[in-house]
Each structure stands twice: as structure tokens, then as C-alpha cells.
Specification:
Blueprint (H helix, E strand, L loop, with lengths): L17 E2 L4 E5 L12 E5 L6 E5 L6 H13 L3 E6 L5 H4 L2 H8 L3 E2 L13 E4 L2 E7 L8 E5 L4 E5 L17 H14 L8 E4 L8 H24 L5 H8 L8 H16 L2
Parallel strand pairs: 4-5, 5-6, 10-11
Antiparallel strand pairs: 1-2, 2-3, 3-4, 7-8, 8-9, 9-10
Bound molecules: zinc ion.
The site of zinc ion (ZN) has 4 residues, from loops.
């Protein structure tokens, strides 16, 4: 039983994307499912009246969605000058090759082998500056971005707009994830920290510090539950999932199993 209360967020169906901060607009992809929540958030970063856009996470290989993103930018007399990936999962990056073909823009991400991002790198377009903060854990290649001047943080799947994320074992690692949440906590610390989270899925989070705090507490609680499950005689990951995630929609049990495997590794000190 999870005791910490989630941070309230817009219920399913209410989040439709749109303008979230001065520079950040979300084009919501129509790929909603239990793992993608309301669908993938494709973030278009542009200064008001600016002629250049940075697109974060073009989404799946989904022509109508990619067209909608391009139309959004073209309607504002701007062009896409850079494509950025928060990580390589297909619901974020599956459409990247096609989007490159449509825009001719270069791709920045962690660990793609070209134009690789490192912690602290700054990406610029007209009136927009994104600062990369590497946040491995959900996956090894996960990266977040501070949107300079907007008090906003793009978190990909490291922190979502609703519910909690998955540590996608074996690529994802819990120790790294906990360190990344610590980094995000520091970046959202009042009074100067980012106040808004622009997540990879789900609604915009208007209280960044509260959501990161919830994620940290939730992770610690889950870990305690997994320890208890082992002490109670659970042996396999499936046993642990059945006990610890009993109240969670079975549609996400395969993902929960990955998080459990990551937690078992962590507890073994692997
Ligand atoms: Zn992901």
C-alpha cells in the first residue's frame, strides 16, 4: 500500500497539449495507452515571434503527428533548426528519422553516436536556450532540459505528468534513477528553481518541487515494499509484482516487473 499521496494532476482526457510556458508548446500525439498516458508530448520550443524552433521528442513514426508538428511551426513562419530526444524509446524517438527527412534538422541526444549530448550542453535557437541535464535511470540515455527563462524543466519519462515512471531494467538502473531525482530536486528547489515540469507524457506539472518530492518518496516506499515482500518469502520478480503492485492496473504489470527487477538488482548491490 502506497502511503504518500500523489500530487494532484489533470485527469485522463483533460490534457490536450497546447501552450504551457512562454516558449513551450505541446503537440500531443494520438497514441494514448496505459504506458503513454494521454499520448506522447512533442514539445516545440520557440520564442514568441521567433523564426526558429527546437522540437523535443517527435514521437512515434506517425506521419499525421509529425505533419501536425511541422504545421504548427510553419504556421508561425518558423522552421525547425534542431531535433532533441529525451531518450531512445520508440514512443519518443521512433519518428526521428522521418522527421529529420522532413526538416533537415540535426538530432541531439545522449548516446546516438553523433551529435551526442553531454551534461551541461546548451542548445540554442532564436530566443531559446535549452540546458541539458543528464538524468539516467528510466533508461541509460535519459536526459532532461532546463528551458532558460521559462522556469521550466523538460523531463521526458524521468518524471511524468501523472502517476510514476518505470525503471526500465536492465538498461534503466535504480541507483542512477535515484541520483537523477536528486538532481531534479536541486533544480526545482525554491525560490530560484524551475517551477514547471514539461513531462514526456501527461499534463504539465505546475508545482515541480512537489512532484519531484513525490517521486523520491514513492521510490523509497516501493523499495521498502519490495524488501518486505522478499522478507515475506517472495522469490521471483513475478511474486513481488503480484504482492507490491496488487492495486495497480494489470496492463502496466509488465512495466512494473522491469521496475521490480531494477529494485532487486539495487538491493543486491548489482
Ligand atoms: Zn520511455
Amino acid at each position: 500500500m502506497t502511503s504518500v499521496a500523489p500530487v494532484p494532476s489533470a485527469p485522463f482526457g483533460q490534457w490536450r497539449g497546447g501552450q504551457a510556458t512562454e516558449r513551450a508548446f505541446c503537440v500531443l500525439e494520438g497514441n494514448a495507452n496505459p504506458m503513454t498516458l494521454d499520448g506522447t508530448n512533442t514539445w516545440v520550443l520557440m520564442a514568441p515571434g521567433g523564426s526558429e524552433a527546437i522540437v523535443v521528442d517527435p514521437g512515434e513514426d506517425d506521419e499525421p503527428h509529425l505533419r501536425a508538428v511541422l504545421d504548427h511551426v510553419a504556421c508561425r513562419d518558423a522552421r525547425v533548426v534542431r531535433i532533441v530526444l529525451t531518450h531512445g524509446h520508440l514512443d519518443h524517438a521512433g519518428g526521428v528519422d522521418r522527421f529529420v527527412a522532413m526538416t533537415g534538422a540535426p538530432v541531439s541526444a545522449v548516446g546516438r553516436g553523433a551529435d551526442d549530448l553531454a551534461d551541461g550542453d546548451v542548445l540554442r535557437a532564436a530566443g531559446v536556450e535549452l540546458r541539458a541535464v543528464t538524468t539516467p535511470g528510466h533508461t541509460a540515455d535519459s536526459v532532461s532540459f532546463v528551458v532558460e527563462g521559462d522556469g521550466a524543466l523538460l523531463t521526458g519519462d524521468t518524471v511524468l505528468g501523472r502517476g510514476t515512471s518505470v525503471v526500465a531494467h536492465p538498461d534503466g538502473e535504480l541507483a542512477a534513477y535515484l541520483d537523477s531525482l536528486d538532481r531534479l530536486a536541486a533544480l526545482t528547489q525554491p525560490p530560484d528553481g524551475a517551477v514547471t515540469i514539461l513531462p514526456g507524457h501527461g499534463p504539465v506539472v505546475p508545482d515541480a518541487a512537489a512532484m519531484v518530492g513525490y517521486y523520491r518518496t514513492h521510490r523509497r516506499e516501493r523499495l521498502a515494499q519490495v524488501r518486505e515482500a522478499l522478507a515475506a518469502g517472495c522469490v521471483s520478480a513475478d511474486d513481488v509484482v503480484e504482492r507490491v503492485y496488487a492495486e495497480v492496473d494489470r496492463a502496466v504489470w509488465p512495466a512494473a516487473r522491469l521496475s521490480v527487477l531494477a529494485q532487486l538488482d539495487y538491493l543486491r548491490g548489482a
